[in-house]
Design the sequence.
């Protein structure tokens, strides 16, 4: 029956091993199967002995097979994939294991080994047999508790729960067995055997309950690296103290009447565990000091790159500044911001972004001397502190080198080994006096200027930037308020057919009525609105307002075109601009063909392929598209042909220039010719003088716009203008 039980457990464990595709879980079950195979064989051989009539003397072949069971079982239990333990808890764990083993040995000595030894004629082997079982059991309890609290897969934890119960039953049995062997309590034997069967049943159920575990499933469970598993601690935490305490309690009890040799044995055990507990405390205290050191490193460093963080950078800067003041030698701070980092993060994921930052951190560290500091103070922001009496090279040159090394392509394994290239914007500030905060703030501000200058460049801080930045901040706040309170209005400047000199349409031009500064022209606030993204909201308002006004004029019988300026930023999201244009047309009822969207040439040429796709979707709405400020943006013929545009608005600079030099007249001629070749409408902007008008008419430019005809006018004024426009050359009253 025993044989069958052990064999059944071995078989159940083997089946569990086959069910699990995770290699470690599978091999753990295989080891457990082999562990149970040992007593299976031992018991079988024992049974044969009995059948053959040979008496089994303890320790028998059965005992020997159980002895190999213990280590195999322990290795098997610890083989399951577990949470990773920190090196700290591993070291303590080792000392604890020795403490518990020696403590248990002392107890076993007192109750079992000692008294047996005192018996006449007991052999050493019998002693060993009696002692090994309890010790083996204690170690197994330790192993199963450890596995239960640290094992990763819940399915395995469930199975090991049964194993824990089985081992407990087994412990009870083994203690009873030890007693029966040494104390001659033979009657206990049959009860013990029944209990063994119960233990075996629990083992079988446990192994059979193991649901399949795959490696992928385990990978999803984060392995905790920090020793913060409270459950793991509970038993493991008090056992190393409880068992020595038990030894001491026995030692005290033994003073009353126990044999001398028992007391001596206990005393030796007590001394050993005391030493071990002291050692453990010593180790724990050292670990605490180390951990504190590690924590303070973490508090001062960036985890991802290992570079000093903002706090440490500021601290180092403060120290350098103190030295700089004494020695009257400046220190420099380079504020490095990675351009397009967000793009990499969004496109390839955070792992790739992290890899990129680590790569850049390594490159930056390679650039500077040991005495200089490279820190990471924000997502994609690095700071270089150049601390020296006199710089080996000027900080600007170091900045150039930074730009070069950042620009080198990077192969990111987290992005499928793709090569990624980014650039850096750098602000440089030097200081001998101010605080570290001021130094970094100045460098930051210069970096910001580098960004606005078009990125991938270096800007050295100047004190005027403070006021510029301050003004900008005020303007930004005011602009937000302007959107909320709708302080904008539109003026309309008519455009004319240059042959007939009649009105063909109007261009809507935005104005801001600032509560304090009065009317602010668009050049003052549109760039800021573009940088901050506020242009999206503003542009949306312009579209609906202009379309509504256009529809009104159409209703009054003036069939004129309405032109609206659209910023590059508004085209970033093609869905958004299409929706806004559609909504403006739908709400106003203006025919799509009456609306012209003006987009500057520079906006189109910064990413011509994307622009081409955007224009195509807009074009499908039925609106017209004009290239604004044409001639200033280096359009290539190839792209001009590809863009679905209807008109070219020739920039003012060519109109005013043409009147005065033959060269500019030639350029104007070729621009108009280009328009004609591409079969586009041509419009001359900024016509102020009659000679300019004559020039354009001579070149057969289709239409024109300028103060000579009319200044931008308020809607009612333009309404009047449309009604009484008799002679287009009579300058109309201005609203600007
Ligand atoms: P733009 O699109 O080139 O508009 C023409 C500008 O030239 C207008 O300036 C207009 O007043 C001015 N102008 C017209 N005729 C003459 C002339 O004969 N001589 C001179 N010297 N100037 C003339 P404004 O209204 O100050 O607008 C400046 C720029 O602001 C516009 O240039 C346009 O790029 C932008 N803008 C205006 N309104 C909007 C808008 O609603 N949205 C966007 N995104 N930009 C706008
Ligand atoms: Ca325009
Ligand atoms: Ca223009």
Sequence:
């Amino acid at each position: 029956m025993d044989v069958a039980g052990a064999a059944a457990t071995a078989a159940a464990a083997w089946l569990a091993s086959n069910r699990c595709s995770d290699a470690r879980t599978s091999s753990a079950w295989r080891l457990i199967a082999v562990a149970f195979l040992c007593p299976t064989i031992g018991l079988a051989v024992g049974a044969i002995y009995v059948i053959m009539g040979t008496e089994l003397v303890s320790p028998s072949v059965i005992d020997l097979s159980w002895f190999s069971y213990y280590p195999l079982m322990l290795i098997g239990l610890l083989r399951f994939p577990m949470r990773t333990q920190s090196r700290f808890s591993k070291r303590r764990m080792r000392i604890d294991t020795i403490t518990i083993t020696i403590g248990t040995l002392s107890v076993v000595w007192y109750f079992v080994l000692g008294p047996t030894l005192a018996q006449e004629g007991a052999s050493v082997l019998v002693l060993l047999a009696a002692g090994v079982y309890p010790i083996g059991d204690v170690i197994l309890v330790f192993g199963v508790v450890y596995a239960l609290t640290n094992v990763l897969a819940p399915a395995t934890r469930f199975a090991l729960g049964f194993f824990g119960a089985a081992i407990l039953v087994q412990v009870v049995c083994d203690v009873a067995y030890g007693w029966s062997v040494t104390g001659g309590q033979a009657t206990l034997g049959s009860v013990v055997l029944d209990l063994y069967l119960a233990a075996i049943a629990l083992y079988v159920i446990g192994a059979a309950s193991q649901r399949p575990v795959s490696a992928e499933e385990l990978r999803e469970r984060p392995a905790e690296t920090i020793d913060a598993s409270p459950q793991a601690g509970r038993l493991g935490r008090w056992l190393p103290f409880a068992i020595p305490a038990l030894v001491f309690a026995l030692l005290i009890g033994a003073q009353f009447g126990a044999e001398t040799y028992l007391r001596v044995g206990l005393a030796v055990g007590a001394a050993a565990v005391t030493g071990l507990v002291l050692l453990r405390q010593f180790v724990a205290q050292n670990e605490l000091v180390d951990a504190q050191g590690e924590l303070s490193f973490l508090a001062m460093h960036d985890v991802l790159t290992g570079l000093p963080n903002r706090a440490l950078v500021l601290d180092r800067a403060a120290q350098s500044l103190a030295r700089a003041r004494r020695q009257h030698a400046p220190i420099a701070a380079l504020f490095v911001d990675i351009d397009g980092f967000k793009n990499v993060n969004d496109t390839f994921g955070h792992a790739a972004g992290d890899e990129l930052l680590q790569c850049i951190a390594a490159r930056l560290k390679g650039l500077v001397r040991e005495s200089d500091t490279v820190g990471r103070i924000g997502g994609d922001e690095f700071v270089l502190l150049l601390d020296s009496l006199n710089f080996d090279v000027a900080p600007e040159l170091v900045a150039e080198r930074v730009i070069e090394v950042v620009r080198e392509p990077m192969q990111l394994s987290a992005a499928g080994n793709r090569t990624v290239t980014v650039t850096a914007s750098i602000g440089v500030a030097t200081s001998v006096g101010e605080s570290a905060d001021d130094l970094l703030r100045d460098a930051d501000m210069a970096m910001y200027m580098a960004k606005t200058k078009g990125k991938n460049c270096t800007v050295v801080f100047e004190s005027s930037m403070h006021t510029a930045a301050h003004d900008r901040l005020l303007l930004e706040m005011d602009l937000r308020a302007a959107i909320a309170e709708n302080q904008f209005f539109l003026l309309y400047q008519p455009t004319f057919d240059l042959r007939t000199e009649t009105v063909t349409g109007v261009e809507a031009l935005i104005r801001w009525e600032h509560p304090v500064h009065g009317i602010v022209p668009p050049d003052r606030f549109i760039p800021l609105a573009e940088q901050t993204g506020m242009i999206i909201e503003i542009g949306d308002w312009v579209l609906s307002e202009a379309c509504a006004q256009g529809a009104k004029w159409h209703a009054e019988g003036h069939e004129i075109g309405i032109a609206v300026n659209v910023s590059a930023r508004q085209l970033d999201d093609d869905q958004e601009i299409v929706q806004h244009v559609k909504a403006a047309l739908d709400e106003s009822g203006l025919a799509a063909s009456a609306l012209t969207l003006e987009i500057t040439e520079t906006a189109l040429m910064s990413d011509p392929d994307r622009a081409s796709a955007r224009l195509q979707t807009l074009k499908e709405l039925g609106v017209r598209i004009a290239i604004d400020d044409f001639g200033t943006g280096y359009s290539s013929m190839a792209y001009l042909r590809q863009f679905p545009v209807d008109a070219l608005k020739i920039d003012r600079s060519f109109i005013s220039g043409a009147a005065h030099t033959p060269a500019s007249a030639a350029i104007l001629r070729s621009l108009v010719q280009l328009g004609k070749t591409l079969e586009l409408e041509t419009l001359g902007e900024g016509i102020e003088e009659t000679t300019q008008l004559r020039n354009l008419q001579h070149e057969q430019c289709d239409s024109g716009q300028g103060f000579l005809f009319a200044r931008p006018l308020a809607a009612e004024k333009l309404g009047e203008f449309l009604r009484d426009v008799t002679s287009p050359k009579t300058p109309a009253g201005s609203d600007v």
